[in-house]
TrEMBL record:
Domain spans labelled J: 441-511
Keywords, in A-Z order: Repeat, TPR repeat
Signal peptide: none
Coiled-coil segments on the chain, per record: none
Protein name: TPR-like protein
Pfam families, per database record: DnaJ (PF00226)
Repeat region (TPR), residues: 126-159
Length: 514
């Protein structure tokens, strides 16, 4: 640690001498009673006193920091050194002292920045370079550490020469160790020795924890091959397939890189790209079991996808639906949300073309549960809703599409058409209501008026459920049992819609018969 710098005390002496000299010159000139002189000397003395107080305050803080550091209270020392820096930001010694306490606290990154700040304030301050070298070693940056220690040697301080030489030797050994590690990692990456990814999906919480852990490891060791691989695997399990592909770029070339690119590709919905990556990986390591196993799975998926595409092109819609279903069943236990969205979209499109509107809506909704911003599914669901006459839902799908893909071709025109159809549909409903042609719908099922409160609806549901619950009809005739089951489902659906404020608003907006 370092004592207070001499320049502070020297400055105090210099200021005192200058004031004394100024007063003597004024007395010699007979200006003691001059008002301007009195004002000026009062101001100079006040400013000098303020500087003296500031100097004393930062000295006290630095001394307290040194005492705390010596007692092993490094957190307290860090606080005192920070106060000293606040009072005298340009003092290189205070920055170097705080770097020492930060290093003891395990914050090598903070310590390195403080050491560099000390170097900026005094490029010839040897201890700043020694601090920076120690911090770089702690951060596993031997090349940077070696540079710092070599610079300290060039300054030739007798008291620090031994430390600088020892630091150079330690940094050089670490450089050699890192070089050997890099060679081993390069060989491992080339042959793909890293274990394969688990096929099953962990829970969302477990996937997030794995990603956060990998990010922390990567931050500590940004160039480590294993850390980058773990980070990419975490991204894939969190369904961030595009980010995973980008993260593969800095990986060492070899089987591991190609394998992870393939994992991100097929799980994201691009089996063709995955197959290409796996073929390249197997050209480097023909007996790689993880690549062989994954290629077998991807080949089956490609077979189903190509058969589905050919069937759709030739108008064999049921066959297309069957192939998509088979592909989904092949990967039902895998973590591959992107692929499932892709397959559900194509199956939903085939259902829509075959006139299976409900099945198409089901596939679109299932895909959008996995990825709410899947633009193709939003557009397909809009089309199906429109063909079914559900114009409000069609318009809402387009609003979601505008958020997910604002540059979707012809989106504004589609929204204008959907809005026009929705308004026209409402007008027709109003006319039908006036003619008495529209039934009461869910309100009639629960036997409540349109203006019923949420409490009225809940009370009505309990009343109807008590009558039509299947348990009440266990000993009834078969036809009565079926009728009660249908009625109970109807009552439940009515309550699920009218008991939810948002769903009730949408229901009223669509039907508008009141």
């Amino acid at each position: 640690m370092n004592a207070l710098a001499d320049p502070g005390e020297a400055g105090s002496i210099w200021r005192t001498e200058k004031i004394d000299s100024f007063q003597k010159l004024a007395a010699k000139a007979g200006l003691e009673e001059n008002e301007e002189y009195k004002r000026l000397i009062t101001l100079i003395v006040a400013e000098t006193t303020s500087l003296e107080q500031l100097w004393q305050a930062q000295k006290v803080e630095n001394d307290a920091g040194m005492a705390a550091y010596g007692a092993g209270a490094h957190g307290k020392a860090f606080h005192h050194f920070s106060e000293a820096i606040r009072l005298w930001p340009s003092n290189c010694i205070y920055h170097a002292n705080r770097a020492s306490s930060a290093l003891k606290l395990g914050r090598a990154d903070v310590a390195l920045q403080d050491a560099k700040n000390a170097m900026k304030r005094n490029p010839k301050y040897c201890k700043a370079y020694l601090r920076a070298g120690a911090c770089a070693v702690a951060l596993q940056r031997p090349s940077e550490a070696l540079s710092m220690y070599q610079h300290a040697l060039l300054l030739k301080p007798k008291s620090s020469k031994a430390k600088a030489r020892a630091g150079c030797e330690a940094a050089a050994r670490m450089c050699e160790e890192q070089a050997r590690t890099c060679e081993q990692e390069a060989a491992s990456a080339l042959h793909g020795e890293r274990p394969p990814m688990p096929p099953a999906a962990p829970s969302d919480e477990a996937a997030a924890e794995q990603l956060l852990s990998a990010e922390a490891m990567l931050q500590a060791c940004p160039d480590m091959h294993a850390a980058i691989c773990a980070y990419i695997e975490g991204l894939i399990l969190c369904q961030r397939y595009a980010d995973a592909q980008n993260a593969c770029l800095p990986l060492l070339p070899g089987v591991d890189r190609l394998y992870l690119q393939a994992e991100a590709s097929w799980r994201g919905g691009d089996a063709e790209e995955a197959h290409t990556s796996l073929e390249a990986a197997l050209a480097l390591a023909q007996d790689s079991s993880k690549c062989l196993n994954l290629r077998s799975l991807v080949a089956r998926l490609l077979q189903h996808e190509r058969a589905a595409a050919a069937a759709r092109e030739e108008g064999r819609l049921e066959e297309c639906i069957g192939e998509c279903t088979a592909a989904l069943q092949t990967t039902e236990h895998f973590s591959c949300a992107g692929l499932h969205c892709h397959l559900l979209y194509h199956r939903g499109s085939a259902h829509a073309a075959a006139g299976h509107s409900q099945e198409a809506l089901g596939d679109c909704s299932a895909a959008l549960q996995l990825n709410p911003a899947h633009a193709e599914c939003l557009h397909l669901r809009h089309t199906v809703h429109r063909e079914m006459g559900s114009y409000v839902e069609a318009y809402l799908d387009l609003q979601r599409l505008r958020t997910a893909a604002p540059s979707w071709p012809g989106l504004l025109q589609l929204m204008e058409e959907a809005a026009t159809l929705s308004l026209a549909h409402r007008s027709d409903l109003r006319a039908s209501a006036k003619a008495g042609n529209v039934p009461g719908g869910y309100y009639e099922v629960l036997e409540v008026p349109v203006q019923a409160s949420a409490q009225d609806i809940r009370r009505a549901y309990r009343k109807q459920a008590a009558v039509w619950h299947p348990d009440k009809w266990l000993n009834a005739e078969k036809d009565d049992v079926f009728r009660a089951q249908d009625k109970f489902r109807e009552v439940t659906l009515a309550y699920e819609t009218l008991g939810d404020e948002q769903k009730r608003c949408m229901y009223n907006a669509k039907n508008l018969w009141y």
